[in-house]
Amino acid sequence: MNKQQLYPETSTIADILLVDDEPNNLRLLANMLTEQGYKTRGVINGPMALKAATSLPPDLILLDIMMPEMDGYQVCHLLQQDSRTCEIPVVFVSAKGEGVDKVKAFAVGGVDYITKPLQYEEVFARIEYHLKLYRLQKKLEEQNVRLNEENCQRLLAEKQLQEKNQQLEAEIELRKTTEEALQQSNAELARANAELEEFTAIASHDLKSPLSTISGYAQLLQIRYGSQLNGEGNDYLSSILRICHRMNELIGDLLSYSRLNKQPDSFKSLECEILIRQACENLEREIDSTGAAILYENLPQIFGDRNALVQLFQNLIGNGLKYRSQAVPEIRITASEKGDRLVFAIRDNGIGIDSQYLDKVFLPFKRFHKDNTPGTGMGLAICRKIVESHSGSIWVESKCDRGSTFYFSLPQIEASSLQNDS
Ligand code: ADP
User: 158 exposed, middle or buried (CB, 10 Å; 0-12, 13-18, 19+)?
Assistant: First the structure.
């Protein structure tokens, strides 16, 4: 007898374990279920049922209640104790008149019961119902596991985020404190600098007058009594005068250094070539005596203090002449744009500077050539102060006997926004 399949889609893959001590019942039930597309396994007692269920858990168990040795309740109870089988839906099967203890059947973990003689449609309906329930439950559990995992990951991410936030907050706090401390020490430094500059200015100024008195008396001595002194006495006097002259230069440079605090409101747009021409006029004697060539063309306008910038070019060109080699000095001045900056280069063909001194050349009173070249060691320190007061920076590239190139950068200012004073 080939019956029509009642649940063609869902039943085919279901694996059902049939437990009945009556082989005839088993066969009948198995035939009936197989016809409906279920996969069945049959066992004839409780211990066999437990073994079959644990070794390969079925999707559903149809379990006879009345069996010798171990009845259905016991089997169901033991299935419930085992984590491998506790979720398998168990439907009890009892013969009419056997008196099923329904409360006990549910208490030991059964999900349903059917009575013999079996009403097939009812059996299929119940099986399908429990299979569906079982599958839904499984799906729900899987979803729960997934949700839990996602939750855990979210919690972990939140925790990491919180930690990162705390770290960031701590960093911000630290930066704030550091900035405050920096601002404070900057303010203190500025105050100390201002005081030092004021002191230098006053001290240099006050030193000038006794020095000119000494120098004046020494000159008087030389004029009036020079003829009465012997050669040695005259040499002493000359030394006094030479040292006075040098000291006067030093004080003069110190004074100009301490006075270099131009405010940007005194700045104007200036024609660079005019500034260089002025610097060359001031150096006329040195340029003529050495036959030097000062080369420049197409230089841009710059923004700043006229006198300070003339002094800057004058010091750099003057050094190119002072520290010349055997060759006739050639000083080339060029400018190029680097982003929002103008970079000037003053290149000479002089004796160059040893690389070990390059980071010290801009410090006050530092001199690196031990001959009697005149100078105080303040020229480049003054250059640095001028450039920095124009919001720029200054540096040098040089090698012994290969000439030097001094660079300084200044911010580019839009020509239209400037007041012209060339
Ligand atoms: P000064 O020229 O009065 O000694 P500067 O501050 O101008 O002082 O220069 C510091 C030192 O750097 C100089 O004594 C010299 O040793 C070196 N120096 C500066 N410019 C040049 C240059 N163009 N070529 C070689 N050496 C230089």
Answer: exposed
Residue spans of alpha helices (H) in 323-420:
379-389
Cα dihedral 64, 67, 73, 79 sign: negative
Separation between Cα atoms, residue 63 and residue 127, nearest integer Å: 12
Q: What spacing in Å lies between the alpha carbon of 267 and ligand 1's midpoint?
A: 28
The owner of tokens 């991410």 is 157
CA distance 330 to 292: 6
How many angstroms separate the Cα of 393 from the Cα of each of 201, 343, 398?
24, 9, 17
| Preceding peptide of 89 cis, ω within 30° | no
State the DSSP string of 264-309.
GGG-EEEEHHHHHHHHHHHTHHHHHHHT-EEEE-S--EEEE-HHHH
Q: Is the pLDDT of residue 422 over 70?
A: no
* Residues composing the chain: 422
Query: In angstroms, rounded to a whole number, what is the distance separating the alpha carbons of residues 415 and 361?
Result: 33
Torsion angle of C-alpha atoms 345, 346, 351, 352, degrees rounded to 10: -30
The helix/strand/coil state of 10 is coil
Is 379 a pocket residue for ligand 1 (Cβ < 6 Å)? yes
| CB-CB contact of 21 with 62 (8 Å) | no
Ligand 1 atom 25: the closest Cα is on which residue?
352
pTM, rounded to two decimals? 0.58
Distance 322 CA to ligand 1 centre (A): 8
Long-range CB contacts (< 8 A, 24+ apart) of 79-83? 79/50, 79/53, 79/109, 80/108, 80/109, 82/50, 82/54
- Check if 323 has its Cβ closer than 6 Å to any atom of ligand 1: yes
User: What does the pLDDT average to over 174-202?
Assistant: 89
Ligand 1 center to 380 CA (angstroms): 7
More confident residue, 308 or 1: 308
Per the structure block, which two tokens stand in for 82? 């085992």
**What is the model's pLDDT at position 416?**
46
What are phi and psi for residue 358, nearest 5 degrees?
A: -60, -35
